[in-house]
Design brief:
With 92 residues, the protein is of the alpha/beta class. Helices cover 38% and strands 18% of the residues. It has one domain: Rossmann fold, CATH 3.40.50.
Length: 92
């Protein structure tokens, strides 16, 4: 199978980085094709500007978005690895 991992964390030595590396190793050892898109490494801007929104309504997508969509089209499985920063810890 073809696996796309979308990874977003500024610190490659973080727990999320460990998860990413573990998933990659397991999938590759199992014979799967793996592509990783590190959004921080790519300097990917996740903010939708008014210009981008207007372009999308007109059927025009930015080149960087089109490139990432190609990876999604390629993949059989998409895995997202990113931190979840929360407020107060849950108390039981």
């Amino acid at each position: 199978m073809k696996h796309l991992i979308v990874y977003a964390h500024p610190n490659p030595d973080s727990l999320n980085g460990y998860f990413k590396n573990t998933v990659i190793n397991h999938l590759q050892q199992s014979g799967h094709d793996v592509q990783v898109r590190d959004l921080y490494q790519l300097n990917f801007n996740p903010v939708l500007s008014l210009e981008d929104a207007a372009g999308q309504r007109g059927g025009v997508m930015p080149a960087d978005v089109l490139a990432e969509q190609e990876y999604i089209t390629w993949a059989d499985v998409v895995t997202f690895i990113y931190p979840i920063f929360g407020g107060r810890a849950c108390q039981l």
